Amino acid sequence: MSDSIRGVLLDIEGTTSSISFVYDVMFPFARKHFADYLEKHWDSDPVQDAVSMLVQDDKDWNAPELLLAEFDDGHDPELYRAGVVKCLLRLMDNDIKATGLKKIQGLVWQEGFTSGEMVAHVYGDVRPAIEAWKATGKDVRIYSSGSIHAQKLFFEHSVAGDMLPLFSGHYDTTTGPKKDAGSYRQIAEAFGLPADEILFVSDIVDELDAATEAGMRAVLSIRPGNKPVENSDRYQAVNSFTDIKVG
Ligand SMILES: [Mg+2]
Predict the structure, then answer these.
(1) Are residues 146 and 128 in the same domain?
(2) Are 100 and 151 in the same domain?
C-alpha cells in the first residue's frame, strides 16, 4: 500500500494531540476567561456578531440553556453582559454547540494562544513524521470537528512550534460530518487525488469506516487517554506516527 500514498489526512483529538488537552485545558480556559474577555472587547464587531447569534438562537430555540432575553432589560449593559456569560456557561454545561458560543470560544482561545498563555499539545512523534512525509512529497492536511479557525490557531501555537506551514489544507464540519463518507469524497476531490492514494488517520473507527467507504486508506490511532476501541482489527493500529509507513 505504501507505494501509492500521496496524501495524508489527519484527525486532531486522539490522533495528533491528546483529547485531554481540549477538555482539560481549552474548555476550562474558555469558561474562565469569558467574563474578562467580554468586558475588554464588548464593543468589538466579532463579539457583537457573536452576541447577535446567541440572541437569534434564543429566539429560534426558546431553550432553557439560553434565555438571554431574561437579562435584556435594555438599561443595564453590565447586567446584560453578565447574563451573556451565564448563557455561555449554560450552553457549555449542556454541550450545546451554538454558533455564537463557538465564535466567542474561538476569540477567547485566540487571545490565549497568541499571548502564549495556552500552548497546544501535539505528541512528540507527530512533527518529525510529518516532516519526513513532506520530504518525500506527500500532501498533508487536517480534518477535525474543531473549526478551521481553531485548527489553525492550535497548530500555529503548538509545543512543537508553528506547524501551520506543514499543512496544505484544513477541513471542518462545514465540509460535512466526520462519520459521513460524502465528506471524505469531497476532501479527496479537494486534494485533487484519487481517494485510494490518501491515507486517513483517526482514533474513531466510525470515521475510518466512512473514509474507507469513500475509497481512502485508513490507520487507527491509539493514544493515551483515548476511548477504548472495539472492532479495530480491520485497521492497522499505531501508537506513534513513526509506525505509519507512507513510502
Ligand atoms: Mg479524534
Answers:
(1) yes
(2) no
Q: Quote the ligand 1 centre to 80 CA distance (angstroms).
A: 37
pLDDT of residue 72: 66
Question: Do 129 and 237 lie in a common domain?
Answer: yes
Distances from the Cα of 31 to the Cαs of 12, 104, 109, 142, in angstroms?
Answer: 22, 11, 10, 26
Does 104 lie in the same domain as 206? no
Q: Which domain holds residue 68?
A: 23-114
What are the residue ranges in the chain where pLDDT is below 50? 1-2
Q: How far is the CA of 180 from the centre of ligand 1 (A)?
A: 15
Cα-to-centroid distance, 18 and ligand 1 (Å): 9
DSSP sequence for 169-207? -EE-TTT--TT-HHHHHHHHHHHTS-GGGEEEEES-HHH
Q: Give the Å distance between the CA of 171 and the centre of ligand 1.
A: 14
Residue 207 CA, ligand 1 centroid: distance in Å: 9
Q: How far is the CA of 193 from the centre of ligand 1 (A)?
A: 23
Answer with the one of 95, 114, 133 that is the final residue of a domain. Answer: 114
Kindly give the distance from the C-alpha atom of residue 13 to the centroid of ligand 1, in angstroms, as a whole number.
4
Q: What is the pTM of this model?
A: 0.87
What pLDDT, in 10s, does the model give residues 169-182? 999 988 999 999 99
User: Distance, CA 92 to ligand 1 centroid (Å)?
Assistant: 20
Of 202, 113, 211, the C-alpha closest to 162 is 113
Position 1 scores a pLDDT of 46
Last residue of a domain, one of 86, 114, 142: 114
> Within this chain, do residues 129 and 230 fall inside the same structural domain, yes or no?
yes
Nearest CA-CA partner of 98 in 61, 144, 143 = 61
Rounded distance from Cα 158 to ligand 1 centre (Å) = 17
